[in-house]
Amino acid sequence: MKRPGIKVWLTGMIICVLLSASLAYVLFGVQWPVGSNVPYYINPNTADVTDEVWAVYYAAETWSQINPAGLRLSYSGPTSETSDSLNDSNNIFWRNDGDSGSLAYARFWYWTSNNIIFETNMVFNDYYNWSTSGGYPDIETVALHEFGHWVGLDHSSSGIMTPNYDGIQRSIDSDARAGFGEMYGMQIYKLEVISGAGGTTIPSPGVYTYYGGDEVIVEAIPETYNCFYKWGEAYQGKENPIVITMNANKVIFADFRFINEPIGVSGERALNRSLSQAEYINILSWQTNPINFEITISNYKIFQVHNGKRNLIVELNANTFEYRHRNVQENTAYTYEIVAINSDGREGRPAKIVVE
Ligand SMILES: [Zn+2]
Fold it and tell me: Residue 233 C-alpha to ligand 1 middle, in angstroms?
């Protein structure tokens, strides 16, 4: 089939000379129609790894989540294609192009009448030993760059669209995203951060707006005697802080727990007499507080309070429920605080006891 008014752009990674000293994104001036869903096919024909489809897919999804309504790249299945030709299919495959210095290239065809792209290909140079596990060159990083060309971005001097391989980069920098946004619009999402009793969050509880693809760090900050328990709403994890990728409106809830003091606390003074000397010992004992059942208690700390100051005298594991404080003074009152410590090192409310 003859296509009138077609032009082809060919662009590669690494081999290219910097086109601009500007830090800002550079557009080719050609793009897909806004609202396009661009199907692509992958030939997983490199012998270097077994999960190349996933690496390419993740890169495509990273672009797609900026504004799915503006432009989506959709994996549509495998292909056996190894020819970089105009064939009504957006193909991605590996081919050994030798020691050319170029890791990969993207090609796209567009109509000169309206600067609309209608077909693309992506070719990885299988001369290189590709990696998905952190080695050089990283498939996802290079695919992210080449997809940048597919959507209409030229090289820039920083970020994912820099022509030089600069280590692993699997997310799109704000500059490249702004370039995408100029062509296809930016999706805005809301993040609602809610905090339960016993703590707060950074950013503080409230509703925030972000662009699609933004990564937001939310940290739970427990108050005194409290610990972070888990995230709620859309998240179930206990990781803190957490990174949220904004690809939808989201609500996150920080759930805290109060760390209660040990119960059954008692203390008594004993005299340990041997032939030559006498030693007074304060024997402290306590029990697990069952109210703390949702909290992992990993330690107990025992403090001695003297003249209004608190000094740590011992740290014990969570299976210990007795402590012998030796060589104490006769006729002197000792004030202690026994504190449960959770697995994050958070201190609970102390149980106080005086032994005299
Ligand atoms: Zn490039």
Answer: 40
| Ligand 1 center–CA 147 separation, angstroms | 9
Question: Ligand 1 center to residue 96 CA distance, Å?
Answer: 18
Q: Residue 229's domain spans which residues?
A: 188-258
Let me know if residue 305 belongs to a domain. yes
User: 186 CA to middle of ligand 1, Å?
Assistant: 23
User: Whose structure tokens read 């709403």?
Assistant: 233
State whether 228 and 246 are in the same domain: yes
Record the tokens describing residue 243, joined without a space: 């990174």
CA of 16 from ligand 1 middle (Å) equals 7
Structure tokens at 305: 């309070």
Domain boundary among 197, 231, 258: 258
Distance 156 CA to ligand 1 centre (A): 9
User: What's the CA-to-centroid distance between 104 and ligand 1, angstroms?
Assistant: 8
CA atoms within 13 A on the CB side of 258: 10
CB 92 within 8 A of CB 122: yes
With 0-12 CB in 10 A as exposed, 13-18 as middle and 19+ as buried, what is 161?
Answer: buried
Q: What is the 151 CA–ligand 1 centroid distance (Å)?
A: 12
Instruction: Decide which of 228, 258, 288 is a domain's last residue.
Output: 258
How far, in Å, CA of 88 to CA of 114, rounded?
19
pLDDT in tens, 122-146: 999 999 999 999 999 999 999 999 9
Ligand 1 centroid from CA 40, angstroms: 19
* Ligand 1 centre distance from Cα of residue 182 (Å): 19
pLDDT digits over 18-39, tens only? 333 345 788 889 999 999 999 9
Give pTM, 2 decimals.
Answer: 0.72
Residue 99, CA distances (Å) to 128, 129, 174 in order: 8, 12, 33
How far is it, in rounded angstroms, from Cα 219 to Cα 202? 5
